[in-house]
Design brief:
Elements lengths: L2 E3 L1 H9 L3 E4 L3 H6 L6 E2 L18 E4 L4 H12 L4 E4 L2 H7 L21
Parallel strand pairs: 1-5, 2-3, 2-4, 4-5
């Protein structure tokens, strides 16, 4: 079973330092995304598993919640603590929460990777 969160729960989690990956295509991400989100298109997730934090919840978002649920399910089966964001970026925007535009320079780094 995939853990779910709404956009207000995501907002609180982000304020506490949560990591969120946006699994939409780069053009979708550039048109508007949750501030601080990391762009990681759905098809690249299996290739980037080593870049994902394993020691805390990882939030996954897309446009409406379908792609992110699939990715969350995939990651959960691999032992990663993951939360799907219900309603996705559309719900985030509809709630009047801030949106960033443009490409991301953010990277995902596991806490254990720092020396």
């Amino acid at each position: 079973m995939v853990t779910q969160a709404d956009v207000l729960q995501l907002q609180k989690a982000l304020a506490a330092g949560a990591v969120v990956i946006d699994v939409r295509e780069p053009f979708e991400f550039a048109s508007g995304h949750v501030p601080g989100a990391v762009s990681m298109p759905m098809h690249l997730v299996p290739l980037k598993l080593d870049e994902l934090p394993k020691e805390r919840n990882l939030y996954v978002i897309c446009a409406a919640g379908n792609r992110s649920w699939q990715v969350a399910h995939f990651l959960g089966e691999r032992g990663i603590s993951v939360v799907n964001v219900n309603g996705g970026t559309m719900a985030w925007h509809a709630a009047g929460l801030p949106i960033e535009t443009g490409s991301s320079t953010h990277t995902v780094v596991s806490e254990g990777a720092h020396s």
